[in-house]
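R.M. (postdoc): so does anyone remember the format we settled on? I'll just put the structure tokens first.
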């Protein structure tokens, strides 16, 4: 197996990847795996440095249906995957989903919008969200799949009121 070295600053020690971080002879594997490494580092820093979000997140598990916003299949329903929330705030939510793709479409990515149906006790509400980050769930945890952090970008006034009422009941 080849080794790859990355030096971001000449005066700093060189970071070397080998057996613990597989690299192909061309180095293309580094390009594919570096975003996962960076995502993992950012997640760990968030844990250590604290959460700097402005809206309080309520840790609550609510069933959700996730589909790609703006995608239609003619008359057939748009495919969706089922998951649940890890946390919810008035401006965003953390989702746990079993897969990061629906068919060949990734749930995260540049300019991606997701349609979320949140199954609240008072009834379902719909919203459009923008994924802002994702990471695989740590294999040591009981849960499996991926965590997607998403910002709410569209929600009807009625559904926003239902969401606010739900969050108030969780205080």
């Amino acid at each position: 197996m080849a080794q790859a070295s990355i030096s971001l600053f000449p005066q700093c020690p060189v970071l070397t990847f080998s057996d613990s971080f597989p690299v192909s002879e061309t180095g293309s594997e580094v390009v594919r795996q570096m975003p996962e490494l960076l995502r993992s580092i950012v997640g760990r820093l968030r844990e250590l440095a604290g959460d700097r979000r402005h809206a309080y997140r309520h840790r609550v598990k609510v069933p959700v249906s996730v589909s790609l916003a703006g995608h239609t299949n003619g008359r057939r329903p748009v495919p969706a995957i089922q998951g649940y929330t890890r946390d919810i705030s008035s401006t965003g939510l953390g989702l746990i989903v079993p897969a990061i793709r629906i068919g060949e479409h990734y749930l995260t990515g540049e300019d991606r919008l997701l349609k979320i149906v949140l199954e609240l006790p008072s009834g379902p509400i719909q919203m459009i969200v923008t994924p802002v980050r994702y990471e695989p769930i740590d294999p040591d945890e009981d849960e499996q799949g991926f965590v997607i952090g998403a910002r709410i970008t569209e929600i009807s006034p009625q559904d926003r009121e239902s969401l606010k009422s739900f969050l108030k009941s969780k205080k």
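R.M.: ...and that's the designed sequence above, right after the tokens. Also worth knowing: The CA atoms of residues 26 and 84 lie 40 Å apart. The domain at 63-169 is CATH 2.40.10.220 (Thrombin, subunit H).
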